[in-house]
Every structure is written in C-alpha cells, then in structure tokens.
Description:
The complex is a heterodimer. Chain A is α/β, with parallel strands linked by helices.
Amino acid sequence: MTTAIATKGLTKDYGSGHGIFDLDLTVAEGEVFGYLGPNGAGKTTTIKLLMGLIHATRGSATILGLDADRDAVALKHKIGYVPGELPLFGGWRGSEIVAYIAGLRGDLTDSKVETVAKRLDLDLGRKYREYSHGNKQKLALLLAFAPQPALLILDEPTSGLDPLHQQEFYGLVRDARGHGATIFISSHVLSEVEHVCDRVGIVRDGHLATVGQLDQLAGMRAHRVEIVFAGAPPIDRIRAIPGFEQLAVEDHRVSGMFRGDFEPLLAALASSRVTKFESREPSLEEIFLGFYK
Amino acid sequence: MTGLVVAAGGLINAVGFAQIAGDNPAARAVFAQQMELLARQLTYLLPAPAELDTMAGYLTWRWFGSAVLIYAFWALLAGTGAGRGDEERGLIELWLSTGASRLRLTAARVAGFAVVAAVSIAFMLAVTDVGAAIGREPLPLGPLAFEGVAMWVLTLFVFAFALVVAQLVTTRRSATGIAGVVVLGLFMLNAAARSGVDVGALRWVSPFYLFERSTPLLQGGSLDAPATAALALGAFVLVVIAVGAFVRRDIGGPLFRIASGKTRVEWRPAGDPLLRMPVLAIVDQQRVWTVAWALGLAVLAGFLTSTTKVMVDALGNSNIPMLRAYFERAGINVYADFVGVIWFSTLLLLVSLFVVVQVNGWAADDAEGRLEMILSAPVSRGRVVVERIAAVVVACAVVVAASSLAVYLTATSTGISLAGGRFVFASAAVLPVAYAFAGVGHAFVGWRPRLAVVVLGALAVVGYFAQQFTPLFAWPDWVNDVSLYALYGTPMSKDDWGGIATLIAIGTVGTAIALFVMRRRDVGR
C-alpha cells in the first residue's frame, strides 16, 4: 500500500511544553485517518506542519512523496484543506470568495462548486459576514472538497454543522474515499471518527499516545463492568483484583473499567450474591477518556 | 496616540508663530495683514480670522480650528467603534453574557470616551501653552480651559452622533461612512455660511457653528454658554437615543430591518473575471476603497490648486522676510512651482498613508486567517508578497492619476500653465515612493506585523514635516535628507533619476527582505 502521509520525528516546539513532539505517523493512500485529541494537544500544529504553513523545529513530513515544507506549493494542487479557525472575509460574498480561491487554485470549475454547494445547501450569494458559523464552515468544506483533491486535510470539519449537514459531510467523505482520496481528519468529536475513519491516532500533550484500527482500539479495553449485589459489595476483594480501574461504588452497585482476564473477577464474586452483572465494550468516548486519565 | 499627535501640532503651531510673526508691533501687523488675506480665502476650511497679530488669535484661527476637526474625526471613529466595531468582534455578546445591561454598557463606553477625550484635550492644550510660553506669549489658563470645554463638548457630540448612526446599520464601515458624510455636511454648512453663503437659521444645526461661537481666548471673547449647553444637551439626547435603539434592536442587526428582496439562491462562483487574475484580484477586492481615496484626493487636489494664485500672491509677495525666504528655499517662483512643491509634497504624504493602510491590511490578513486560506491553494509565499506590492502600486497609480487629472484641469481652468511632460513625470515619480514604502512595509509585516504600521506611519509623518520645516526654519539640509521624500526631488523643475533609482532600490531591497522573512516565518503566529 502506498503511503500518503509519513512523518518522522516531526517536532514543533513552541516552548513551555507546547507544540508537537517526535511525531512518527503513517497514513496510507485511500485511508480515512482520524486524529483525536483535546484542545491544545497539538492537532492543529500537526496539521499546519503538514500544510507547510509553519516550519518544523526538527523532523520531516512527506506527503504523496513530496516534502511538506519544501514542496508546499506543488503539494497544494493535490490537497483540499479546512482550517481549524475560519478566516474573516468581511463583506465579500460567498461567490466572490470561491471565485478568488478558484483563481488561485486553477482546478475549481463552476460545475464542481455548484454540485458541492447544492449538497451542502449553501447560498453563495450572501455576504460572508451574514453567514452563520455553520454556513462559514460549509464554505470551507466546499473549498476543500470541490476540487476533488487526492488528499483532504480537515481540522475539526464538523464544527458548527447541524446534524443534517454532518450527515452530508460524512457522505462527502465517503464519496471522496470512493474516488480514492486520502482523508486526514482532526477532531475531538469521537462520533464523527466512528462514522468515517478506518484508523485513529490519539494525541496527548504534544505526543502521539497511540494509533490503531478502530476495532483494535476498542480491543484495547477495558470492558465497562457494572455489578449489583444483593447485600454489601465485597469492596476489599474487588479492589484487590488487578485491572479493575475507575472503581465507583454506590450503595449495592459497583462499576468500573475492567482490563484483562475475567477469571479473578468471577472468583472474587463467587461468595457474594450478585443480582446483576453487566459487561459491555466501552464506547470510543470512554477509551478516549481513558487515555487522559 | 491622537493626543500625542495633536499635542505635537499645537506645539509646532505655537512655536512656529513665534518664529514667523516677528517680535515687534510693526512686523506683527504686517504678518497679521498677510495672514488675514490668506485666511479670507480659507474660510471654508478654518474659522474666521481675528487678532492674528497675537498668539491667542493665531492659535484660535490656525490651530484650534484644525484641532477640532481632528478630534471630531477621532470621535467619529470611536463612536462607530463603540457602537458597531466591538459588536463585529463579538465583544458585545461576550459582555452582555456577563449580565451587564445594555444601558450600563453604553453608559460605560460614553463615560470612558468622555474621560479619555477630556485628558487628551487637556494634554493638547497644556502642550500648546508650553509652545506659547516658549514664544514668550503664554495663553491665559482660564480662557484656555474654556476653549478646552468647547472642544470637549463638540467631540462628545460627534461621538454620540456616531453612536446613533451605528445603531442603524450592521457594519462599522457603513456607520463610519454615513456618519462621516453627515458630519462633513454639517461642517460644510457652517463653512459655507462663513464664506458668505446665506444658509439662514440652518447654520445653528451645525455643531461646528456652535463651537465657533465660543472665542474665550480673544479680546472680549468668552465661552458661549447657550451654544455650549445646546451642544451638551444635543450630545445627551443623542446618547439617550443610542441607548434606546441599542436596547430595542437585535445584536448584530440594525434598528430597522428591511426585508431582503433577494429570492434566488446562488450556487456558482462570481463571474467577475478580475477576481481570478493575479494582482488585479487584490485591486478588485479593494475597488471601493481605492475609488474613495482617488475621489477624495481629486477633490483635495482641485481645492489646493484653486487656491494656488491666492496663496502665492499673498505669501510669495509677502513683506515677511521669513516667508519670502521660505519661498526662495523651497524654489517657489511661479504658480506652477507652488503646485509642484505644495501639491506633490501633500500627495506624497497621502499616498504613503494609503500604503500604510494597505500594510495594515496585510498584517490583518495573517491575524484573521485569510493568508492561511490563500496559502492552502497552490500559491507560493513569494507570489503573495510580490502580488501585494504590485497591487498596491497599481492602486496608487489609480489614486495618483485621478488627483493629477484634477490638478491639471483646475490649473488650466484658473489660468495656471503646467508643463504637461514635467507634470506627467512628476505624477509618475510618486509611484517609486509608494513602491519604497510598500517594500519596507512588507519587510516589517513579515518580521513584526504590529510594528509595521507604527514604523511606516512615523516614516511618512516625520519625513513630511522634515521636508516642510527645513526650508521654513532654515534647518540644515541633512534634516531634509533624512526624509524618504527627499529622494523624490523636485521633478516639476528638474530630473533626479538618482533619487528615483534609490527609491526603487529601497523598494526592491524591502521586497527582497520581505520575501526572505515571509519564507521563514510561521503563518498565523
């Protein structure tokens, strides 16, 4: 499989621990990759490095075989981009902004624009300052998707979109993947990653914490366990079981995240009367939170 | 900042009077006579002259009449900023979400401006009085304070008016435009009456007339209490209207909403072909702004040219040695020279300020995310720099062409003969100055964006004054030479290709530095 994005020791050090450090990451062509992390984790810094907007302190990033920094201009012909913070275009009409960017890109035809604008239900005749936040986001999505680029780099792309248009966004992502595009999505909205991504990387405090397939991440659990006892819970015995974390006790109910073999847990419960035992796979949300504990 | 600039103006005018007017009654009388002649031609700009042989009379006419316009302009910008600018930036929404009432918010802004304006005016008057004291003719403190009160009340009136206008529209730019036109209209109404046009009782509508009724620094003059009270009452009523409108309207919306007639949805990019062309796309985006500058400068050019004969006759043939010497040093012998020296020096300053505004826009492009969006297209950073500088030179060419055409037509209609070739050359030679400013400006934008406007503005203003004051006060030539404008030379009388080449070299070096810095820097930081 060909590599679309490869970073090696990619670092941007803003000082005081801010930035992104020693990022080694590979995204295959045609893959939809989710880049997860809370605010300030380093997602946008990574994306700006990939876009050649900021320069790395050390390390390198290669995109579609080209250097992200040195070959930034040539690369932009192949990239569609949604920035994390929407620009201020003041009194321009949406149609004027699109015409201006179309002039800069050279590969944005009127018919492509019309198709995406209709899908997103975005009236380009209105002034940018009159757009709601959601409509501004739609315009950014239109500018990224309409050229049908080989790679889409999207920084929190569903910010401000209503659920209906979030679905339309997922449709755009699926269609782009259908055309063979690679998609790199940064987000802290886990549901959108669950909707569209093949693999996920989790970044924390400027460091990549883990990368894996969605089902692999779910396999790293960690089951969510809830036990209801007829009498007082045998707390001491439960606490002694290795792998039982985030323990919460409420009357006769004990809950927590359980990682590992179930046998010691069941053995510990054998002498107690259990009225309810529930174990389920944690949601990505719970896995995500687990990385930040 | 406004306070500092205006205070410097007061100091210069006071010291300048002491230098020019002479130090004996006979010289003063001659000076006053010459100034009176000039002042009669400038009644649509400055107040009617009186007691021009005294420091108080001269400053009342020449300086306070100008300073009040600067304060009015400042108040206009502050009023629309408070009424709409903060809202555009989302600050009003934030403040209101903290539980502050709209009444309290407006009252705080008005009170804050009133205090700042009072401090600024008091500072300006104090510095002006220091200048008068240096000229050994200090102004009496009581009447000076009354002058300040009259100016302060007028400033508050304009602020309150701008605040009301800001409630009626949705953008600060619209509010500034509309309020500016109305305030200018009120100023012109009073100016017309001053110039002998019969406007009847309508003159009382103009706040500038109410201000000018107070002449506390003149012999027998005083603060016109009814006029000042009327202005204060007017300001209060306007603030009440502004508060009422602010309470009633939606945040982000105008007081009166007109239903949009637009029914057709647009799905396609705009058809304007200029938006897709290098350089012209940037010029096209700023077409309204550029046309406004071109028209404004054309009007000013026409006005200044129309006063050429009067000014040259009044000042050039003056019996005042210093003025005669100034005309000689500045090389003003005939009307055409006056156009060359006075108009083109003014044009250089104004074109430089036009460039400074563009430089400010380049810094904002980065801060407001537009540069990031542009660079997400296959566009090199170098192209961004070159296109911006080329676009500003093209826009300056439009502005210069419009104003030069106005000068030429006015000169021809008033019987002043301008050598066509030289005049075209002198006009075209303004563009290397614009290029030099743009190059230096972009070098700063890449390095220290926030410093760029301050440095470039200082370069323009200091350069202008150095050029103006060197012949007036017989300063050494090197003072004039520190000005970038010195390189422009006097193309109406002789060629100075060396100066023009140097300007182009400065612009090119600035552009080269800008290219280097732009490549190295992080975008959006």
